[in-house]
Amino acid sequence: MDFPEKKLGFGLMRLPKQDEKIVLEKTIEMVDEFLASGFTYFDTAYVYEGSEEMMRKAITERYPRDRFTAASKMAPWKLSSSFSALDMFNESLERTGLGYFDYYLIHNLQDTHLAQCEKYGCWDTVRKLKKEGKIRHIGFSFHGDPPLLRKLLEMYSEMEFVQLQVNYLDMDSPFVGAEENLRIAKEFGKPVIVMEPVKGGLLSSVSRDLLPEGVSGPDLALRFASSLDGVKVVLSGMSTLEQVKENIRTFSSDKPLSNDDMKAIEAIRKHYREGRMIQCTSCRYCTSGCPKHIDIPLVFRAVNDLRAIGEHGRPRNYYLDLVEAGRIGRASDCIKCRKCEAACPQHLPITDLLKECSAILDDGQKA
Ligand code: SF4
Ligand code: SF4
Predict the structure, then answer these.
(1) What superfamily does domain 8-258 belong to in CATH?
(2) Tally of CA atoms within 13 A in the half-sphere of 242 that contains its CB
(3) Which residue, by CA, sits nearest to atom 4 of ligand 1?
């Protein structure tokens, strides 16, 4: 199957926002820069709030359809007896205005979503839509373990590609198994689209003294993901024009990983393991169901910043300001209903982690 010549893909899940709304003008600037530099792959999803509409306004309505390639995703966990897989697909097609999808994926497959996928006929729907020409290539994005990936590729051999979480921290992670998943994809002859190459921004904020001279955190992480066998696209969820420009520089230079880069990767892995960093990717799948309105990724980010970057005032102040303004719940408000854990693609023990974070944030004083 065909993929764009240039590997950087624009993930439209973290677009710039103001007052909770995506800002069209800023998105347009980023999209224009990306396309003008010869990159063409855009990735959205039914569940990325406002993103499919933004794809229509910033891309579909402004560029000829053959100038770019577009992917979206079906969310099995949002389907019901009154909202079918076809309804969801048609809504995505209408929101994006694309006419057809170059790539269409079943989203976030893991043990907990498989039954929904079967029950609401996701596999049959995407097969049928491909036959009708409304999808060029079908695949799935995956957050399960390697045995499940093998099982899915055996059962659904017509899936043409897989989207996997791959970054240098997750290669040997027992929860993600990126290295093993890549090996299985290769064994089945499936090209790979990489998601979370900078682990939701975690690898962007690597301390400067752990990086080689002239190399930034995102640059190192993106070059690592791009260098792996079978990888055709590396998605980056960009939020600013500066990020777009920096990523374009990385992918345009085509600089291979050096010995110094590999040494730095080893040192960063060690640092993160010893620093007990919380491996949250800020996807926010956990937040909408929380009855206590706890901003789980924000809590984890604040604690990671305290641990890794060594800032002692700002992250805690920021969190406490929002709590005191009534905009988010306190970590200590958690009632352990575990709705968030069922939604977390990283399989994080969120309730235990919140208890730990609460001791750091809620019991601390503002600086
Ligand atoms: S377990 Fe706690 S954080 Fe998770 S959804 Fe329930 S109340 Fe919210
Ligand atoms: S805790 Fe899990 S679901 Fe929530 S934002 Fe982090 S990675 Fe995503």
Answers:
(1) NADP-dependent oxidoreductase domain (3.20.20.100)
(2) 1
(3) 340
Provide the 8-state DSSP code for 267: H
The per-residue DSSP string of 194-243 comes to: EE-TTGGGTTTS--GGGSPTT--HHHHHHHHHHTSTTEEEEEEE--SHHH
Buried b (16+ CB within 10 A) or exposed e, 158-178: ebbbbbbbbbbbbbebeebbb
Burial of 44 per CB tally in 10 Å (0-12, 13-18, 19+) = buried
The domain locations on the chain are: 8-258, 296-361
CA of 61 to the centre of ligand 1 (A): 40
CA–CA separation, 50 and 194 (whole Å): 23
From residue 312, give the alpha-carbon distance in Å to each of 29, 143, 260: 35, 33, 31
Ligand nearest to the CA of 354: 1
Give the nearest ligand 2 atom to 279 CA. Answer: 7
Q: Which of 295, 296, 353 for a ligand 2 pocket mutation test, highest count of atoms within 8 Å of Cβ? A: 296
Kindly report the protein residue whose alpha carbon is nearest to atom 7 of ligand 2.
Answer: 280
Position in ligand 2 atom list of the atom nearest CA 350: 1
Q: Which atom of ligand 2 is closest in space to residue 283's alpha carbon?
A: 8
Residue 297 Cα to ligand 2 middle (Å): 6
Taking a C-beta distance cutoff of 8 angstroms, is the pair 71, 42 a contact? yes
| Residuewise pLDDT in 10s, the chain (367 residues) | 889 999 999 999 999 999 889 999 999 999 999 999 999 999 999 999 999 999 999 999 999 999 999 999 999 999 999 999 999 999 999 999 999 999 999 999 988 789 999 999 999 999 999 999 999 999 999 998 899 999 999 999 999 999 999 999 889 876 688 999 999 999 999 999 999 999 888 888 888 889 999 999 999 999 999 999 999 999 999 999 999 999 999 999 989 999 999 999 999 998 887 777 888 888 889 999 999 999 999 999 888 877 765 555 677 888 888 899 899 999 999 999 999 999 998 889 999 999 999 998 887 666 6
